[in-house]
Amino acid sequence: MVIRVRILGGPTREVGYREGMKVIDVLRSIGVMSSEYVVVKNGRIVAEDEPIEDGDELVLYPVVSGG
Amino acid sequence: MAKCSLCGRPAIYISRISGVALCEKHFLEYFDRKVRRTIRKYKLFKPKDHIAVAVSGGKDSLSLLHYLHKLSRRVPGWKITALLVDEGIRGYREYTVKRLEKVASELGVDYVVVRFKDELGFTLDKIVKIALERGLPYKPCTFCGVFRRYLLNKKAREIGAAVIATGHNLDDIIQTYMMNIIDNDWTKIARLGPVSGPAHHPRFVRKVKPFYEVLEKETTIYAILNGFYEGFEECPYARFGVRWTVRKMLNQLEEQYPGVKYSILQSLLTAIDMLNKLGIGEGEVETCAICGEPSAHPVCRACMLKIELGILELSPEKLAQLPPSARKMIESSLKLYERRNAQNKQTNKTSRGVDEAASF
Ligand SMILES: [Zn+2]
Ligand SMILES: [Zn+2]
Questions:
Q1: Which of B102, B131, B78 has its CA nearest to residue B310?
Q2: pTM assigned to the model
Q3: By CB distance 3.0 to 4.6 Å, which of A48, B4, B292, B318 could disulfide with B23?
């Protein structure tokens, strides 16, 4: 199964789900740094060590937006 | 689920340095404490201050407006006015002006929109076009930056503001620091403190950065929690050059060595301190011979750009009345312009010649 990752203003990516996965693992597998995005899961901001469940969708808010 | 270290509710943020996890409520408290500490430590405001908040319409400046407005309820002597410079960039500014209007009316703060078109006679789009036609060697961001700063200072003073607050965060500041190190520009570094100036000029409005010690990620969380994050809008003129690379590099460093960003900020503060002792950056403030605004040179950069663009024409009589140093600046820039023009004509001729030859 997959985790869908939607980057605001950018592409939507999919990541294979693994047992015991956390937000930080998802970020690493799509090659982005946690300092570059705020992660929202089910409408709530979550920290990097938030556990991920199969089928979750994450929305990534870029911290850069020009002022 | 990651839990708040203070109350056990779901965490939304973990400080990579202290390892402390924070829920929404405790994040906002942490944010507030941090900003108030900056304000206190660097004496950014006085008990009675008319504060102009420079708003770009983006998340950081709207967050600053929201934050200072909230804080002002505890400081009866403060008055807050939002100040937005509308450069006239089509497809970008219309939207941000509307957004400011909405936020300002929701918060109940006064706001003023300063338009390039009204103040300079032309929008930035038009200025960029003129510059291209005249073959001026400047990027759009040069015109935008110089005229924005110029108009912010002028308008803030006109509305009676004692101080201008900008939404720059820790990341912005250390990126600029790194870029200026690369450029070997220590005068600019000396001006990167939380309070810029201190220019002793009757027309200079001091500039302060309340988010000086707040990470970009933290201001973004604050913006999302308060509903100021509406999308990824970016100035169409923004080309991510050196800054983009420097940003990436700093984030990579921080990822590997949490706390690096704060160390770099400390390094900057030390550098500023040393530079001040050497008398660098506090350079004398002059008065522009043309417009009377504070300036680092006999003629300010805004007036020089206007002259080069041909949107400010000086009659020979007026030119003759100027102090010699100012006259020299203008005359040498005009000479440079003519020389450049002559060169351009030359290259145009040769390239046309080649084209004609090629078509035969
Ligand atoms: Zn808590
Ligand atoms: Zn001037």
A1: B131
A2: 0.89
A3: B4
What are the Cα distances from residue B229, in Å, to A32, A63, B7? 20, 10, 27
Domain limits for position B344: 287-355
Per-residue pLDDT reduced to its tens digit, A15-54: 999 999 999 999 999 999 999 999 999 889 999 999 999 8
Cβ–Cβ below 8 Å for A65 and B58: yes
Which chain A residue lies closest to B217 (C-alpha atoms)? A63
Residue A39: inside a domain, yes or no? Answer: yes
User: Is B60:B223 a contact under the CB 8 Å cutoff?
Assistant: yes
* Separation of alpha carbons B89 and B144, rounded Å: 10
ipTM > 0.90, yes or no: yes
Both tokens assigned to B70: 């909230």
Contact B1 A50 (CB under 8 A): yes
Kindly state whether residue B360 falls inside one of the protein's structural domains. no
Q: Using CA atoms in the order B227, A66, B61, B22, what is the torsion angle rounded to 10 degrees?
A: 50
